[in-house]
Design brief:
heterodimer, A: alpha+beta, five-stranded antiparallel sheet, 11 helices, 14 strands, B: alpha+beta, five-stranded mixed sheet, about 15% strand
Chain lengths: ~280, ~160
């Protein structure tokens, strides 16, 4: 299939992009890497009247200053090669699409697209990232957990754009693991788990961050699992944490896997991730 | 309609395009460069992979108008009617193709992968997860690409 007709503006700056989006109204859409949007255009799942191209708006680049600030149009492949990127993200990146799609797909695009089965939103929620957005009512910062609302739906208002995402750097004593099961490499996850544990001098977990994706309409933190892990060695609680995680998720099930299987899978991935991060 | 100017396989081309024209269709229908194949048109099969400013991308997931001012290299750029590249020779030698539909996309992605250093067999296999081949069972393709990884003593040489 081919896309339905639309207008096109190549924005040369953030201001140009915001102006074009406002002028284009509710049927205008920003395009960055286009690795989700262009397939949706080709299949005519979406029919925007105007595309505002952000690739020349000066929104790419990575800066470290207490945290890692990633410009919206920074390619996913750029993070693979950047050693400052949090190890949880570096572990998850090979699961994001394929080698070739990561060359074009952007970090901000993945966050703004808010696919419930996407890896970067999951890591973003697990690490308490922040989204910097700009729009008609000015610049504001949204916490990751509040940004993802439901399937393909975020807290972005009309005419607002993701300008950059802010990711924490790895902390002292922090270890992490990412686990995913997909039917084929690069396919959408059936379930995925992100775990980051911070330990004190005695080796006990003082802070745990646990999130699951693909089994809900958005990436979700499992706070009860985090509470369970604190004060343990991590590994000793891995099985209990897996059982608890399986009981906390409520996936709908699909043609590929029943809800019961997906719950058990999530528990198994959780146990595996905690053991690996231990 | 908008006029675009880009460099395709070293040649400057100027064309008027509708914004919705995909890069693949621009290459195939406007420029008659039919080496770039069209499979799924939603970024899954990898048959349309070309180099955009030296980096491998899905031609079906880039609009021609987005490539305005850029350099695009297709499978036709590899041999240009002259001798085959080392990678193409290796595909021949290892029987890494049968029907050939997936081959142009794989050649372009592998050209990009090999230009970045010395991929391991696992990294080659991972790259190939983004390219559907129904003929070969993949093993000969992995072999063909792996045979083109420079040995450490060759690195920095002219190979």
């Amino acid at each position: 299939m081919k896309p339905a007709p639309f207008g096109y503006v190549r924005a040369g700056s953030l201001d140009e992009a915001l102006a074009a989006l406002t002028e284009g109204g509710e049927d205008a859409k920003p395009i960055a890497g286009g690795q989700s949007l262009v397939p949706a255009l080709n299949l005519r799942l979406v029919r925007p009247t105007l595309l505002v191209d952000l690739n020349h708006a000066g929104l790419d680049g990575v800066a470290a200053n207490g945290a890692l600030t990633v410009g919206a149009t920074t390619r996913q492949a750029a993070l693979v090669r950047d050693e400052r990127v949090h190890p949880l993200v570096r572990e998850a990146l090979p699961f994001v699409g394929h080698f070739v799609t990561r060359n074009r797909g952007t970090v901000g695009g993945s966050i703004a697209h808010a696919d419930g089965a996407a890896e970067l939103p999951l890591c973003f929620v697990a690490l308490d990232g922040k989204v910097v957005v700009d729009g008609p009512s000015g610049r504001r910062v949204i916490a990751a957990d509040e940004f993802f609302v439901t399937h393909f739906t975020t807290a972005l208002g009309a005419g607002e754009l993701v300008v950059e995402t802010v990711w924490p750097l790895v902390a002292t004593g922090e270890s992490c693991a990412f686990e995913e099961l997909a039917l084929r490499a690069g396919d959408f996850a059936q379930s995925m788990v992100a775990v980051a544990l911070r330990r004190g001098a005695d080796g006990r977990v003082v802070d745990a961050s646990v999130a699951v994706g693909a089994v809900s309409d958005r990436p979700i933190r499992l706070r009860d699992v985090e509470t369970l892990l604190v004060g343990t060695s991590g590994a000793e609680a891995a099985r209990d944490a897996g059982s608890l995680a399986a009981s906390l998720v409520d996936p709908p099930g699909s043609i590929h896997a029943s809800a019961r299987y997906l719950r058990a899978l999530t528990g198994a991935l959780m146990t595996r991730a905690i053991e690996r991060a231990a | 309609m908008t006029e675009v100017e880009l460099t395709v396989n070293g040649r400057i081309v100027r064309e008027t395009v509708e914004p919705r024209l995909l890069l693949t269709d621009f290459l195939r229908h406007r420029l008659r460069l039919t080496g770039t194949h069209v499979g799924c048109e939603h970024g899954v099969c990898g048959a349309c992979t070309v180099l955009l400013d030296g980096v491998s991308v899905r031609g079906c997931c880039v609009l021609a108008i987005q490539a305005d001012g850029s350099r695009v290299d297709t499978v036709e750029s590899l041999a240009e009617g002259g001798p085959l590249t080392e990678l193409q020779e290796s595909f021949h030698r290892h029987h890494a193709l049968q029907c050939g539909f997936c081959t142009p996309g794989i050649l372009m992605a592998a050209t990009d992968l090999l230009s970045r250093g010395r991929p391991t067999r696992a990294e080659i296999a991972d790259m190939l997860s983004g390219h559907l081949c129904r003929c070969t069972g993949y093993t000969p393709i992995v072999d063909a690409i792996e045979a083109c990884v420079e040995s450490p003593q060759d690195a920095g040489g002219s190979a």
